Structure formats: structure tokens, C-alpha cells
Amino acid sequence: MNICTIDGRRIEYVRLPSSHPRSGAPAMVFLHEGLGSLSMWRDFPQQLADACGCEAIVYSRHGYGRSDPLTKKRTPAFMHHEARVCLPQLLDQLGLDRPILFGHSDGASIALIHAGGTSRPLTATVVMAPHVLVEDISIRSIRKARDTYLSTDLKARLAKYHADPDSAFWGWNDIWLDPAFRDWNIEDCLPGIVCPLLAIQGEDDEYGTMDQIERIARRCRDVELVKLADCRHSPHKDQPRQVIATVAEFVARILD
Question: What tens digit of pLDDT does each residue of 118-165 get?
């Protein structure tokens, strides 16, 4: 594990070389979900790096993993800040040119904002279970998660992956349940995405409906949608082989 300073905070990251590197391939940068971290990806980034021939860059955002914990409550603009301020600083510090972004859930939303809301060139963007607006199903599931955190051993389980599980959980849960966040919407960023885009979503996603990726398809230029049966909010856990095969084929198509 390595440490860099992004926006004044210590951020943990790793660089994972591919076992089968593709000549000239860009790095793939992984952006985790709202309760995720570097370690919660487990070996998935390495598997995808090996399949795609790309180096994998995996990091924990501020408030997660072994990165600095939060010191104040997030605002509704937190994902825009991550996309427009923090992610560009990370890419610059690591010398990453035209990367492929791979985002899950909140991380997918950050990837979309960065791809469509900055002028920085990307080779491609892959998003799993992205949020482009707040749906009732999202709020219901996030409220259920709050009850679970307060009544079960979820905090202890998250402590395996986060130095400060309260920072990780409440930083995510509080802002999503804040009434001020109900009108959050990033559809205005979508027409600005010019790189190829792959959007993956499970048909049984408990945090969002297919309307999320269908809205992306209506507003972006070069989009491929993949809808997975028997799959919930984490396709890389529920359908890992299918996700790896799909992403590897997508990457090969755009790099060949």
C-alpha cells in the first residue's frame, strides 16, 4: 500500500500490474462504492487487470479504508468535488494519461461526473450500478442499511476494511438521507462524455432501477448497456465472470 496527499488528505492506493500487459494500454482506475474501500475490492481489480492487460490503480477516497477519515459532514456536492478536484489530483500525481475509469455505485457516479464534467481526456469509462439521480428505492435501501448498522454487527464487519467504520458508514448514509440531497442529479454531465462508455446493472439491484442506465444511454454518444439477471447492486460480486468477460471484450474493442 502507498500513500499520497490529495486535497490535503492522506489517501491510500496501490498499483497492480497486469500479468498479461497489453502494449500501450492505459491504466484502469477503480472508484469504489459508497461503503467501499481499496481492500473491499479484494482480488477483483487484479483479475480485471490480468484479463484486460491494463495496470490497475485502486484507492480509498477520503473517509474510507486507511485514508484520512472525515472531519465534517458531507454536502450534496461531495461527488462533484471528488470528480473535479480529487480525482484529477490523483491522476496527475501518479502520472496517468488517458486512463480507463472503472466505477461502482457512488464511484460510478464520480466517474460519470469526471468524464462529462471535466476537459480531461479518457480512453473509456466503465460504470456498474451508477446513480444519476436519487430514486425512492435508493432511499428505502439506505434507510434499511442505517437500521442494520444500528442493530447488528455491521460496524464490526466494516472495521475489517475501514480504519474508522463510523466515518465510512455515516459519511455515506447521512448525506444520502439528507433532504437536501433528494434533488441531486448529474444528467447534465452526461452529454459531455465523449469516450466509449460501458454501463452494467443488475436486474435485482436494491439501490436503483434500470432507469439509471437507460437515462445514460439516452444522453451519451457511445454507450453499451449490459443488464444482468440474478444480480443485485454489486455485479462484480454476484456475476464476476460475466463482468470480467464483458469488460475485457469492451476494452479489447476500443484498444484494437
Answer: 999 999 999 999 999 999 999 999 999 999 999 999 999 999 999 999
Question: What grid cell was written down for 42?
Answer: 479484494
Q: What angle do CA 88, 90, 95 make, to 5 degrees?
A: 95
Q: Looking at the domain covering 2-255, what would its CATH class be?
A: alpha beta
pTM beyond 0.90: the answer is: yes
C-alpha cell at 20: 498479461
Cβ proximity of 208 and 137 under 8 Å: yes
**Residue 183's CB: how many other CB atoms inside 10 A?**
9
